[in-house]
């Protein structure tokens, strides 16, 4: 098993349509292009061996990239040079902001929960009326890493077989 690193990034764009139209293929191509531009063929070859986009949430603009442990610094140093994403023959100007580098997907998930919680707290401080405050508080209370335990009789099949 090869040691890997997971890089958690955020897509930052002025255009609201950018987040709705991004795809993992477009993010992967833009990152590979930036690596090739910054580090040349050697850097591109090193990073391409096990590089992949593991997770993409277009709604929040969160991207999780995976690469080999020995070349994650090449990847991280090329991420600020991503200038645009191309999707459906449209180009959207944006940048990738590195949030966290972790050894497992689980550590990145834990960081993302804490990061989102801090962002919600900042939103709570900036609320102007009580309705906004209640919505943000509800969102803040729903941030947890606990698994939901299902009831024993709730998950039977429709035909009665198990």
UniProtKB/TrEMBL annotation:
InterPro entries recorded for this chain?
Pop5/Rpp14/Rnp2-like, RNase_P/MRP_POP5, Rnp2-like_sf
Q: Which Gene Ontology molecular-function terms are recorded?
A: ribonuclease P RNA binding
Keywords from UniProt, A to Z, are: Nucleus, rRNA processing, tRNA processing
**GO CC annotations?**
multimeric ribonuclease P complex; nucleolus
Q: Which GO terms describe its biological process?
A: rRNA processing; tRNA 5'-leader removal
The entry's localization annotation reads: Nucleus, Nucleolus
Q: How does it assemble?
A: Component of nuclear RNase P and RNase MRP ribonucleoproteins. RNase P consists of a catalytic RNA moiety and 10 different protein chains; POP1, POP4, POP5, POP7, RPP14, RPP21, RPP25, RPP30, RPP38 and RPP40. Within the RNase P complex, POP1, POP7 and RPP25 form the 'finger' subcomplex, POP5, RPP14, RPP40 and homodimeric RPP30 form the 'palm' subcomplex, and RPP21, POP4 and RPP38 form the 'wrist' subcomplex. All subunits of the RNase P complex interact with the catalytic RNA. Several subunits of RNase P are also part of the RNase MRP complex.
Briefly state the protein's biological role.
Component of ribonuclease P, a protein complex that generates mature tRNA molecules by cleaving their 5'-ends. Also a component of the MRP ribonuclease complex, which cleaves pre-rRNA sequences.
Give the family this protein belongs to, as stated in its UniProt record. Answer: Belongs to the eukaryotic/archaeal RNase P protein component 2 family.
Instruction: Return the protein name.
Output: Ribonuclease P/MRP protein subunit POP5
């Amino acid at each position: 098993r090869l040691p890997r690193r997971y890089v958690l990034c955020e897509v930052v764009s002025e255009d609201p349509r950018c987040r709705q139209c991004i795809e993992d293929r477009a993010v992967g191509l833009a990152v590979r292009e930036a690596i090739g531009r910054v580090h040349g063929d050697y850097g591109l070859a090193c990073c391409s061996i096990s590089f992949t986009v593991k997770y993409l949430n277009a709604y929040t603009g969160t991207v999780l990239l995976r690469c080999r442990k020995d070349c994650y610094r090449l990847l991280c140093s090329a991420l600020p040079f991503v200038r645009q994403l191309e999707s459906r023959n449209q180009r959207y100007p944006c940048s990738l902001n590195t949030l966290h580098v972790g050894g497992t997907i689980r550590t990145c998930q834990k960081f993302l929960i804490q990061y989102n919680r801090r962002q919600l707290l900042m939103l709570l401080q900036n609320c102007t009326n009580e309705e906004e405050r209640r919505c943000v508080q509800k969102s803040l209370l729903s941030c947890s890493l606990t698994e939901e335990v299902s009831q024993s009789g709730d998950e039977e099949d429709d035909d009665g077989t198990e």
